[in-house]
């Protein structure tokens, strides 16, 4: 019995690391975008398109890292589209996000059809469990380098938002567009850049989905991870480091179902599949308030105003 | 908007307006102002179509073929037209599920979840009743139950918005995923029909318990219900105190609070009406098309409905026309796939493109002086 519990816990640890990576990238991208005062709900579409493009590029070039880069470029293209459209007056960024989500998913499914069958080279993993003899721990600690890339990006983002001139510009634009304009900053240009970079990160998150875990391209690859990551940013109170922690939490929740399955508990598999969504909703309920806006929220955010 | 062009126009405007104010009646002025809401969406549709044509040519397909197949598969023959109307029924209802909350200022996109859950709930309720209760009362109870479940589901998002300030767009989409997971949980488990090894489904309703079609057509009654609901909800939202209060709340939340309007109840009621519409769509999918509840219920009608509602500018009276247009597009999807060797996601690309261009066109409102009453050109 204890063995089974340990197996589940180890599988959940491994699962948390694996499942959290795409959450982390999307959340970091969205965090940057929202810091500048704009919401991009379309990152779900960016994630799916990134996954497709990464798989296709990896298949054609034979190099998964080219795939990661291609996914980032595709993602930044969608981000730039969102950034440009929302820069026009009287355009609602939440609605455009929904449209971009449908558009991104549509384009990914359209061009992704021929890549469902073939095998593309995947990203390798770093075996961090070499010191242990437990095969469970070994397989749990097969950590993808992108996980560490994500953590480095999170630290860099947190540091530069706080300490650099660029960070100050982004935060000013996000907190008060009027103040930023008074300083001579082009609000639209800053938001365009943050949305584009945010799209790049979300695209890389998609590359992880198709090239590492689950590690194949199909139409059911992402079901709401991109959206949950957007909700996760609210929970992380717009702090990149807390985004990483929140992503790990979500990864753990997403890993409950598969972990229980690994010890033969298959009952309620679909119910555990719903666990991340329920957790997201519960967290949103717990962290929101009708009376005042969320703590540390950028003042220009149209969401939850 | 910059001041420069307005300044140069001003003197000419003054002369214009003096001459034409007398000539243009009140009706003409209103027609002129309202035509903006027709012309700009049509312009957006045309631009999206042009972009899609370029896209098709870029991948080596003929846009002319595409249009002719949409015509043949969606509108050209009596059979395809009936197929289109059949598919537009859930689109009308899921579009209403977006349009009603939009009136109160909410962007709800949970129609897909309410459709799936409402359809599943009606099927689950019907199975023990089959053979014991005659078809007609069974169907009525099923429909009401589907509406109640759908209304409850989207109502949650509305309640959370009011009581906890939870962003309704995200929560309603999360509820969609949860709703689909709940259906899968039951359909693959406790309620699975074990005699059908292929696709996890509930037990079939059987032909006696299916809703028939409108006489002399292949179109099921969901289409008629959709039309009736559109008219009813139009009157509710624009001709009753309830609708007025809802629109005031959507226009200015603080003003509504200050007026002492029951804002919370209004928000939950609008959300519940929305969910009930989508739930009814699910009921018709189960009782008129599928005959059972399974994963085919999540066919994306809820998402296309979002686009339909936005294109209709959330006006219930315009929704049927737009829904028929998109119903035709969905109906011709199979033909396009087979004849032009295009993936089934082609329709998704076109829909996404239309949606993006449409929202971009929001920026054009108020930019064209032709839509403004004479003499008001320099006021925005």
How would you characterize the overall build of this protein?
Chain A has 305 residues and is mainly alpha-helical. In chain A, 70% of the residues lie in helices and 1% in strands. Chain A contains 13 helices and two strands, in the order ααααβαβαααααααα. Chain A has a two-stranded antiparallel ribbon with strand order 1-2. The longest helix of chain A has 34 residues, at 2-35. Chain A starts with a helix and ends in an 18-residue tail after the last helix. The model of chain A has no long low-confidence stretch (mean pLDDT 89). Chain B is mostly helical and 380 residues long. In chain B, 72% of the residues lie in helices and 0% in strands. Chain B contains 15 helices and no strands. In chain B, helix 3 (63-76) runs antiparallel to helix 14 (333-340) and helix 8 (222-239) crosses helix 9. The longest helix of chain B is centred in the first third of the chain and has 33 residues, at 26-58. Chain B is globular. The N and C termini of chain B lie close together (10 Å). At the A-B interface, helix 4, helix 10, helix 12 and helix 13 of A face helix 6, helix 7, helix 12 and helix 15 of B.
Helix and strand element order of chain A? HHHHEHEHHHHHHHH
Largest β-sheet summary of chain B: none
Largest interface: A-B, 49 and 47 residues
Give the overall form of chain A: globular
Query: Which stretches of chain B are low in confidence, meaning pLDDT under 50 for 5 or more residues running?
Result: 1-11
Brief descriptors of the model:
heterodimer, A: mainly alpha, two-stranded antiparallel sheet, 70% helix, globular, B: 380 residues, mainly alpha, 72% helix
Task: Briefly characterize the structure.
The complex is a heterodimer of chains A (305) and B (380). Chain A is mostly helical.
Topology of helices and strands:
The complex is a heterodimer of chains A (305) and B (380).
Chain A: H1 2-35, H2 43-61, H3 64-86, H4 93-112, E1 126-127, H5 135-140, E2 142-143, H6 145-163, H7 165-175, H8 177-182, H9 187-211, H10 225-235, H11 240-262, H12 269-273, H13 275-287
Antiparallel strand pairs in A: 1-2
Helix pairs in contact in A: 1-6, 1-9, 1-10, 1-11, 2-3, 2-4, 2-9, 2-10, 3-4, 3-9, 6-7, 6-11, 10-11, 10-13, 11-13
Chain B: H1 4-23, H2 26-58, H3 63-76, H4 78-103, H5 111-129, H6 135-164, H7 168-187, H8 222-239, H9 241-251, H10 253-258, H11 263-290, H12 301-311, H13 319-331, H14 333-340, H15 346-360
Helix pairs in contact in B: 2-15, 3-4, 3-13, 3-14, 4-8, 4-11, 4-12, 4-13, 5-6, 5-7, 5-11, 5-12, 6-7, 6-11, 8-9, 9-11, 12-13, 12-15
